[in-house]
Prior knowledge:
Two copies of one chain form a homodimer.
Chain A: H1 9-15, H2 19-22, H3 31-35, E1 45-49, H4 55-62, E2 67-72, H5 75-84, E3 90-94, E4 107-113, H6 122-132, E5 133-144, H7 146-149, E6 157-158, E7 164-168, E8 175-181, E9 183-190, H8 193-203, E10 206-212, H9 217-222, E11 235-241
Parallel strand pairs in A: 1-2, 1-4, 2-3, 4-5
Antiparallel strand pairs in A: 5-11, 6-7, 8-9, 10-11
Amino acid sequence: MAQNIYDRAEFFEGYSQLPRSVHGLAGAPEWPAIRALLPDLAGRQVVDLGCGYGWFSRWALEHGAASVVGFDLSEKMLARAREMTARPEADYRIADLETLELPAASFDFAYSSLAFHYIADFGRLARTIHAGLRPGSQFVFTIEHPIYMAPSQPGWQTDAAGTRIWPLDQYAVEGERRTDWLAKGVVKYHRTLGTTLNILIEAGFRIARVVEWSPSDEEVALQPALAEERDRPMMVIIAAGR
Amino acid sequence: MAQNIYDRAEFFEGYSQLPRSVHGLAGAPEWPAIRALLPDLAGRQVVDLGCGYGWFSRWALEHGAASVVGFDLSEKMLARAREMTARPEADYRIADLETLELPAASFDFAYSSLAFHYIADFGRLARTIHAGLRPGSQFVFTIEHPIYMAPSQPGWQTDAAGTRIWPLDQYAVEGERRTDWLAKGVVKYHRTLGTTLNILIEAGFRIARVVEWSPSDEEVALQPALAEERDRPMMVIIAAGR
């Protein structure tokens, strides 16, 4: 079973104060880039994997989706999601993405934001999603970038020449990484970008777009702290076709 | 026009002494991983882009290819290639991959080893290759990995904790990189992995496999210096379908 950090008090408290928790999609700097990859959702049956507070699920319904099923491991998250989007077309269910089952060919669009890097068996999950989507569907998701996750010391350093550097090592060494982020000992699973893409291809998806997210000049002007994303990407956005 | 470093005396001299120049494919540690992605070449008409000494072209003919056309910018390379593979099925021609033209739908397989990262306009080249291949063809190539190419100081460092690190910066800053490798001021073009894949997809290719090459335990046991490839990949191998 996946580690449930979200229901730990210290994590939930910290998480609930993140800009993306307070402001929803508008608080996530990568959202415009994700949005550019989304198909028209009108009339679609959407599944949102690791839905959190349901910000995306709500957005999908506001943009014409026929229904949304949001899965999350955290009861606290789901409680907030149900409160925020109390509509009959929104169905929020507890589930561990490591063992998730989906009804066959039941959805037209699958979405996930920053959840899959907590999953040890991404192959199983990719096959489950593929089987749960109807032919012709799209799948868009974000994960922590493997460049961000790989290092033994994942934090900025300044080298002897005074340059801010990201100390990359063990990029090819896949598997568990533990970090302290909002809570101690958060477990994530490092896979190279190639491995993630190959798992999708083996599951039957066609890769449509790979965006190693970095901010535009305008975004950096508005939020100067984002400039470091140009030195090493924190997230990757992948769009695939079923 | 692409920079022709190969015909500079100092570069050619250094290049001709590399293990992959002396021993051919067997001298390239990534060759077993490339070979695993190759289709059966029997009867195929092959194009080899940046063919160098023609090691791959010769291998393709030895493995049943009907013909090979090898393109390279360097007269010196081509002279050696013609000498090494003096067969009527092997046709070695001078060409700049920046301005290459191929006859439409004339090849069944395209190959390139460590050449495309010298090309400024990869979009033009990808469209040229797509048009030159027949439907159902495969395309396998290697490039320098963008993690390897990106940094302002692309060399190992040891951090304060004594860890060997690859000082990544400016990963998202695409464009020219100049390094001194065999000769001074070698010009390369940095693109993120996502950009390379998106260019292929836009040109009409279907991504089949992305391998960020790293050595196996056996390969490291035989050649301990390869262990550093696990910390940061130097090459990426991409297989695509037309």
